[in-house]
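Hi R.,

Here's the input for the glutamine complex you asked about:
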Amino acid sequence: MTLREAWKLGKDRLTEAQVPDADLDAWYLLEWCTGVNRSHYLAWPEEAISPEQEEQYRQTLNQRERRIPLQQITGEQEFMGLSFYVNEHVLIPRQDTEVLVEETAKFLKDGMSFLDLCTGSGCILLSLLHLRAGAEGTGADLSPEALKVAAQNRERLGVKAELIESDLFDKIEGAFDVIVSNPPYIKREEIETLMDEVRLHEPYMALDGHEDGLYFYRKIAEEAPKHLRAGGGLFLEIGWDQGESVSELLREQGFSDVKVVKDLAGLDRVVEGYYR
Ligand code: GLN
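And here is the predicted structure with glutamine in place:
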């Protein structure tokens, strides 16, 4: 089978299965299985792919037809310019979350300590440590499978970080200069409306913000004061319509200078507050 035939096969199969961006996804999978880049393809479209490559390519198409996200097939996602390993036990890092990392990094200085709650793949924890190698970072997650992924990413990126299995603050001792989190925040009734890739293949526990979507913000806002040093900052990713309600939760718990930061699409994305 030639490269051209392979791409055509992939486009047809994924289009038939109503996969969004079928052409592009077929291309990415072909590129991933053969190592052939775009300019090579344009120069030699009639080059044959090996039987092993064809077999692997067909298997990845089977997976994508079942709406398994591309990132779970290839096992990686870029975030903050770094490559993270991902699997079905963690939320795939989203570009939207880069705003949270950038906002937190403005406050986080070398020598400070920080805690990343619901760390998942570790994308927030580890990219912050990549930016602030002199900071001391701890990641917590309830899921041991997610922590294994975070540990693999810690190894992959060669940074130092502590990882703790903990339901929010349950196993956390001591106080930090910064607490950051992108907790699950989708309203339960909205989960079934999400695209198949997310609804069927990303961890339910990474999406589910309970009835009103605010469950984790409430718990974090209540307990964070016990785990923040004087002058410490709390940085939370939020959904586009949660800016007001999460700001209010922080003010109720005595946080000051509470503000909402927008993402590149102009939507509310981060709420931050300080504990004096
Ligand atoms: N903190 C991780 C991330 O931002 C996981 C978030 C989650 O599971 N809700 O990707």
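One thing worth noting: The pocket of glutamine is lined by residues 91, 93, 97, 118-121, 123-124, 182-184, 206 (CB under 6 Å).

Cheers,
M.
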